[in-house]
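The data layer described in this paper is built around a simple, fixed record for each protein. We quote a single record here, exactly as it is kept in our systems:
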Amino acid sequence: MNFENHHPLQAYWDLTVAAVQAEAFDLALESGLLDHLQMSGGVADIARHMHMDPHRSGLLLELLWSMGVLERSTGDSATSYRLTPALAPYLVSNGGQYCGDAWRYRLQALRHFGTQLRGLLQAPSATDDSGQPGSVPATKTFQSANGPNWAQAARKQIGQEQRAATTAAALHIVSAIAECQSAFAATGATPAKPLHMLDLGGGPGWVAIALAQACPPLTGAVFDWPETVAVAADNIRQTGLAQRLHALPGNLEQDDIGHGYDLIWCSSVLHFVPDMAAVLAKILAALKPGGVLVCAQAEIAGDAAAAARVLPYYLPMRMLGRHVTYQGQLAQLLADNGFVAIEQSTSTAFPMAPVQVLIARKDAA
C-alpha cells in the first residue's frame, strides 16, 4: 500500500519550521558548538563542555544531525556526534574559508527586512528618476550603498563569502575563457602575454588576489569606494602582491576606472548603479579591443521554481529600488551597449542564489 500523498500545503508548513532550523544553526555557530565538534563527542560530554542541559542538548544535536550539519554514530552504550567533515572548512571559526559570520549577517538582515515588509507595503511609494511610482529614487539608493558600511562588511562578511565561494567560482570561470587560457597555462618555460584585469566593485579584493596567485602574468586593480578598497589594499599587501595589484578608489558613477584592460570582473555590482547603460558604456570603454567582461549577477527566471531560488534573497533590494533584471535582460543590455559574442550560463557556485554568468567582449576591430 502506498500512502505517499503529499498535501498541497506541505511546502508552506515547511516554511514555519525553517525558522526553528535557522535558530538552531545560528545557536550552534554563536555558541562555539561547531568548533567543539571537530572531534566526535558524546551528548553528556558535549553538554558539560557547553554548559547546557544534557537532555535538551541531545535534542538540539539530533536536530542538527537531521539537517546534515552533524554526523551521528550510535554505539552500544552511547550516541556521539561530530561536525560533518565537508562543512568544517566553512564552519570552524579558525578556518581559512570560515563564513559563519557572513551567514549570521545574512540571517539577521533578512529577519530585519521581514519585520519591515508590511510597513513598506503600507508606506507611500517614492518615485524613481523617471517619475514612476513604486521605488526609492535610484540616486538615493546608490549613494546609500557605500562608504563605511561596505568597508566593515568587506573586512568580515563579504570577505568570508569571497574566500569561501566566490574566488573558486571566479577561478573556474576565468581560466576557462579562451582569451585567458594561455595566461593561466603560463610557466617559466612557456611565458604568456600579460593579462591586465580590473576587479570592479571588488570589495576586499580576494577575487583579484586569487586570480593573480593562480596566473603569474596577471596584473591589475581593484576598484571600489575609498573606504572599502582600503580593505583590498591591506589584503593585497599582506599577500605579497603589491607589485602586481593595486587599489583604485572611486565612485563608479563619477570617476575614471582606468583603461586598457584585457579582463574586467564584475560580480553583483550592477544591482546598485542608477544607470546600468551608462556603467556598461564606461566598462566597454575601459576594455582593450577584444577585451572580455565577466559579469556574474542574479536574474529572475521565468519559471516559479527557479525564481524561488532568487526572489527571497533579492526582495529587500527590489523594495529599495535596486536593479534585479529578468533572465535575458542583462544580455540584451550588453548587446545594446556595444558588447559582442555574449555567452550566458547559470552558476550555483556563488553565495546565496544562483547567478547568471555573462561573458561579453569588446569588438577587436
